Amino acid sequence: MMQELGQPGAEPCRVDLLTGDMKRSVDFYGRLFGWKTSGGNSGTEDSIDMYLGDELVAGFLNNDSGSECSDAWVTYLNVADAHAASYSAGMYGGCVFLQPLEIQGQGTLAMIGDPTGIGVGLWQSSTVRGLTKASGRHGTRIWNELHTTKFEKVTHFYRDALEWDLLSLSDTDEFRYQSYGQGPNAKAGIFDISGQPDPKPGWRTYFAVTDTDKALALAKNLGAKVLKQAQDSPFGRMAVLADPTGAEFSIIQTVPA
């Protein structure tokens, strides 16, 4: 569950938090993961980059009170051509929520949806600025995973529209999962949650921690809600949380190599 960014291959490249309370989110993630704002920002701005030391880890975006979107973590895929990828999404049964938009001096942004309507961002970078690596360091993004109740339809979409080379890790009624790449070169996963209790489709972001139980206890003290208690897995000890404004995320203490 770790990858390095290489040539654009529609792999997860960064995450943004859509939040209705910027100051509260800055405080929560700062105390949980040690993140700090850039340039002394106070948390009153509409857009803030968050850093761990000198490493960019995420962006925070203000979720306007008039927005129909819930607070959430948004995954972006690194593409060579946002226009072509958006067109391909439409060709293979998806939709385009936001047409490609050039961000001066940085790159081109778009937002697409798969055939079930689950959105994901596209980012065509003109520089390395704005990209994050899944390094495994405490407090950094380590894995991105799509949860879906329409597994066949969604896996076909990512294969066809974005040219994902998906490999089956398990194909049973109890656990159906495909990975984009494998082993240390794995980039993302697609998980069939149709048989899970209270399935909630969407992209999930995992953050690395040095100790899942300690991080979970701290998050609870900071106002987070525990959605799934800590449990061991083949990839490490993990838990699922909702931050104080409701955005869901996962933490994982990885297994030593």
TrEMBL record:
Chain ranges of the VOC domain: 11-125, 140-254
CDD domains in alphabetical order: SgaA_N_like
Source species, domain of life: Bacteria
Listed Pfam families: Glyoxalase, Glyoxalase_6
UniProt name for this protein: VOC family protein
Organism (species): Glutamicibacter soli
